[in-house]
Amino acid sequence: MKRFIACLVLATCCLCATASAEELGAYLRTHYPSLRYVERYRATHPEDVLGSADAWAASARLAPETTASAVSRRLVGLADQHVALTGAKAGKTETLGVLFRTSSDGHMIVWRILDARITGLAQGDTVLQINGTPTAAWLKSAADLTFGGNTRARQAEAALSLALGTPAAHQVAGAGKTVALRVQRFAQAPRQVALHYQPMTQELARMLASAVDVPDLPEVVQIGNTRVGSIRLGAFAPQYNPTFTQAADARETATPQTNDPDAAMLAGFCAVTRELIGRYDAIAGRSDVMLIDLRGNMGGFAREVRGFSWALTGRKPVKTYEMRASGTPGSVRLEALQDDASCGSVASHKPLLVLVDAGTRSAGELLATYLWASGATIMGERTIGAGGGRDSESQGVALGDSGYRALVSENFYIFDPTEDLRVGEMDEATLVDRVAADGFRPSRTRPFATQSIGVVPDVPLAIDAADLNDGGQGLLLRGLVAAGLTK
Q: What range does the record give for the signal peptide (predicted)?
């Protein structure tokens, strides 16, 4: 199992590869999936974008020495959640030992506590101030140098990055080694709590993967006159799931000489998928509709997502391509995502709802898209638009002598319900024109993409402070009424 486990990296949808280092503008013009796509998105949604096109302008040059903030300011123009700073000065991932959740209007709560040593906070505490700044103002300011496709989602991403990110990301947000929070528990007096960053260990990563899967909603909840069954999927990190590792190890032990390097991994995926099918059918038997809760989903492994989608809908996922730079100006290259055999599907096909928020990203957006393409109804907020990925071992591009390297998306997903597209090179302008139709909104009748635009809900819902405290039951009621599914 060791030969593939290194590629199962949280919040990355891709396989392992490396990229060469060269000057930023030339690198983006040569290797970025489609700058034409970025420019069209920026022109279509000026209210959502930051920065400028300087990062890929032929005349742009980085100063020999620069700060993480200056580098970030140059790169936010891509509207690309997968942008990140790495390198010697960026540092390694660190965490406060907690996770936050935010509302549409700038409220924030302590959502999960990963480190049991943290006793000054409780889940559900309202965060009133961050380092002396009112929370809504802090989120707005931090979002100005956060990567992603829309303002609200960048605020959710800033809250995640505050809890879990590199020292460079924390420097950009104005945080040092310690973060001072002013918090309040219900009607009690506000109090000050100081949290210190600590290295992100394997044990904390394991606790993180478990914590984000803990449900906020009951398995079955009565909403109006409708029984709603709910399954929470917080990340796709099978390397921390014993069902996956046991099945993968058993397959590898049984067939040690196999020439199929994916055999053990696929055995693990099928074991996890069958486990999901069992949970779903057990809950669906007591429900009128089923809900997949993807709020705050942190992403994960795309092949697991494709299997989950097939299992939940009984339909093969919509044809999907990775759009990459072709090396030829004016054209892009389409590569089909690998199709795996079905691991089975649910027996109970109830109306399917998907709940997303501004914190849903990457593979979470991918699953929402697949379920929507198969007929599910999406409710919630528009997501951040991490609609592609970068290779988990990518080295990105060196940024002059700054000590930083930039990682950016190396592919965008193109979804093709028409099945008219083909593997190989394609005229870039023609493809961008097709996916940019109707303001980049998704379509069941033409190719579409989710890069930058994100998942656009059928039933848009603003999330308020009360929704953070009741697990989302009020939010769900508003969504069901708007969708005509309850009274």
A: 1-21
